[in-house]
Amino acid sequence: MVDGVDVFSHLANIGDAKSLIIHPASTTHRQLSDEQRGWPPALVPTLVRLSIGIETADDIIADLEQALAKATA
């Protein structure tokens, strides 16, 4: 899903004006053991973190819908 978005940027920044997306299990938390991550349930392997920016709601929703469609096809 992370690779399928167009509006979102694949970054770990917080507090940006643009929408961001990240998959913590394969990026920011990949070096941690399952126990350190709190699995289960705190940080499940399928968790995708979103930070919503100032883009229009319609653009954000449409981007997420098409990315989810690609990911589940």
Task: Explain what the structure shows.
This protein is of the alpha+beta class and 73 residues long. Helix content is 27%, strand content 8%. It has 2 helices and 2 strands; from the N terminus they run E-H-E-H. A two-stranded antiparallel ribbon has the order 1-2. It is globular, with a radius of gyration of 13 Å.
DSSP summary: helix tally: 2
What distance separates the N and C termini?
11 Å
Q: Mean of residue pLDDT?
A: 82
* N-to-C series of helices and strands: EHEH
Q: Order of strands side by side in the largest beta sheet?
A: 1-2
How many E strands? 2
State the secondary-structure class.
alpha+beta
Q: What kind of assembly state do the chains in view correspond to?
A: single chain
Main β-sheet description: 2 strands, antiparallel
Give the low-pLDDT segments: none
What is the approximate shape?
Answer: globular
Strand content: 5-15%
Helix content: 25-40%
